[in-house]
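Example 3.2
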Amino acid sequence: MTWDNLIPRMFWLLLQPSNLFFILFLIGLVLIWRSHRKTGLSLLTGCAVFYAMVTFGPLTSWLMTPLEKRFSHYTNHIGDAPYSGIIVLGGAERLKLSTKHNQATLSGAAERLVEAAKLARIFPDIPIIHSGGGQRENTLSETEIARKFFTEAGINLYRIRFDTKSYNTYTNALETAKLIESHEKGKWLLVTSAFHMPRSVGAYRNAGINIQPYPVDYRTSLTNSLIRRPNAGHSLYQLDFAVHEWLGLLAYYISGRSEELFPAPQS
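Structure, written as tokens:
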């Protein structure tokens, strides 16, 4: 793992809302125990308000819905054919479980591969690029799991170009660009999770790739409500994804990895 990937991951461990909530809660308890009762109670009160906003309120939806709505117009849209190819981003592959059970075990983002396979059948004559080189020691890689999935889905592997080097969205775009041949100047369908699409679009446009978003793996109904059915674990889990994307959008814009802070559809 390179430093430009390791350092952001270390910061994220501290900033991740579910982790930060737990850290601040413990600090509050320690402050009360150490006779800083007023400060400790204020911190615990803030944690309680945050927990209520996430569990019963609209905080998660407020952050996730704008991400998913940004390119929702392109959901299931394939009316601009011909296309040069299909790009599907990795991240749905569960490395340890796939290795343990020798099956293509996928996460909640399974629609990335499922929809890519569907598009491959609709457009049988165009190439597919799978971008995702993630791997841990003694496990199958994202590429190996994707190979297994596409083989079992009946997709000819000769059509698929595998990027085995990328480790984040920015390098997804850079490595994908290397796999596109000079004559393939038309639009490429970009398949990834709806909440991840804005940052992906920014990175791929910055890499000079002509893409059309094809968002999948929706986590919301694209509407907000002030009160929601309580589910603390699920809400915190989704909040982590949403905050990660907003911070990623800001970091990509500041670092020049995207020309837009919040990429939008182009006319």
